[in-house]
Inverse folding.
């Protein structure tokens, strides 16, 4: 079941999840635009977009506790969870932002909280993978 969206939040003009992840179903590599994404407008096949696009929600949309600094267009981070894993995809154009407060300390806090359940945080930036 897709988690509820926090009141007042919406994707708006953010299209980060049409660029950062690799999506096999769309033959889309990581850090490249989906061929269906139109700059400044969004998905050109919105009514027919694949189910995985329909179902995806990032933590920014669903986590009450995240402040404005976590808005993907400001953080340049796409954060989402699967099981006990929190995945962070960092925009390749912003090498340092995710390494500094408030982001890295929060990644460490999430990882520390998840550790007892076998959980962790994993950050992908360009070819770099950091498991916290
Ligand atoms: S990263 Fe989050 S806010 Fe941005 S388009 Fe994707 S789901 Fe929406
Ligand atoms: S199909 Fe549409 S929603 Fe899915 S990644 Fe491409 S542009 Fe984004």
């Amino acid at each position: 079941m897709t988690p509820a969206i926090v009141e007042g939040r919406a994707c708006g003009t953010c299209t980060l999840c049409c660029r950062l992840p690799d999506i096999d179903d769309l033959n889309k590599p990581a850090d490249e635009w989906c061929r269906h994404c139109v700059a400044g407008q969004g998905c050109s096949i919105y009514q027919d977009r694949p189910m995985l696009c329909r179902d995806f929600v990032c933590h920014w949309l669903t986590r009450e506790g995240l402040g404005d600094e976590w808005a993907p267009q400001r953080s340049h981070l796409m954060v989402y969870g699967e099981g006990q894993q929190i995945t962070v995809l960092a925009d390749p154009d912003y090498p340092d932002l995710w390494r500094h407060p408030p982001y890295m300390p929060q990644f460490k806090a999430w990882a520390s909280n998840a550790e007892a359940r076998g959980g962790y945080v994993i950050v992908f930036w360009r070819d770099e993978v950091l498991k916290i």
